[in-house]
Structures are given as C-alpha cells and as structure tokens.
C-alpha cells in the first residue's frame, strides 16, 4: 500500500478541520468555494460572523509551521475570493467576517490548532 497523496491528505485534513469547527459550535456553510481568484477551504457561520477558513497541513514542523505557510500573497488571494463570495451571495448587506486558519500537524493529523482572526484585510497581525 502506498502513502496517501497530497490531495487525499488535504481532503482528510479539511474533513478533520470541519469536524473540529462544528464541535466548537460553528455551522458549515460551504466547502472548497472556487472562483477565478482562488479557493476558500471552508466557509462557516460563527453566530453572526461569517468565517473564511484556510486549512493547512504539515507532516512535521521541520520546515516551518502550517500557519507560516500562508504567505501574504496567499492571504490576499483568500481575501479576494471572500470578496467574490460576498458580492455574489450578500449583495445588500454583507455580514461581519473574519479569516481563520486551521493548522494540522502530524502524520496522524492529530495536532489541531484553530487560529481565529489569523489575518485581516490590509495585512497580517
């Protein structure tokens, strides 16, 4: 048996992240929203706040953390994609939003970190 491919591992990580967020009380809105600007892994509802979540997986932290792998350019693509989503679905009055990250580390995908407000429009914290 061969090791799972990147796509398969990424899909498993997204399923684990979704379950984790639902356990924390968030409601699933959409997965893998795509447009010409990019993709958003998970869109969740946290009370009145719409959450755009990026899921990152790393086998180990030898070459940096999962969170560190979301570059400013990747953040901007996520923001642009979120704007597209909002314009297509919430034209009149968009809800308050935030950008979260779910970082998963380890071969067994057991170490889960939920970073709320991981970045914001205009740059990283």
Report mean pLDDT, rounded to a whole number.
86
CATH class: Alpha Beta
Helix content: 25-40%
Order of strands in the sheet with most strands = 1-2-3-4-5
Q: Could you describe the largest sheet, including whether it forms a barrel?
A: 5 strands, mixed
| Tally of DSSP β-strands | 5
Topology order in helix (H) and strand (E) letters: HEEEHEE
State the end-to-end distance. Answer: 43 Å
InterPro entries: Restrct_endonuc-II-like, tRNA_endonuc-like_dom_sf, UPF0102_YraN-like
Pfam families: UPF0102
Protein name: UPF0102 protein YraN
GO molecular function, one term: nucleic acid binding
Ordered list of secondary-structure elements with their pairings:
Layout: H1 6-23, E1 27-35, E2 38-46, E3 49-58, H2 72-89, E4 97-105, E5 111-119
How would you describe this protein?
The protein is an alpha+beta fold and 125 residues long. The protein has a single domain (6-117), classed as Trna Endonuclease, Chain: A, domain 1. Helices cover 29% and strands 37% of the residues. It has two helices and five strands; from the N terminus they run H-E-E-E-H-E-E. The mean pLDDT is 86.
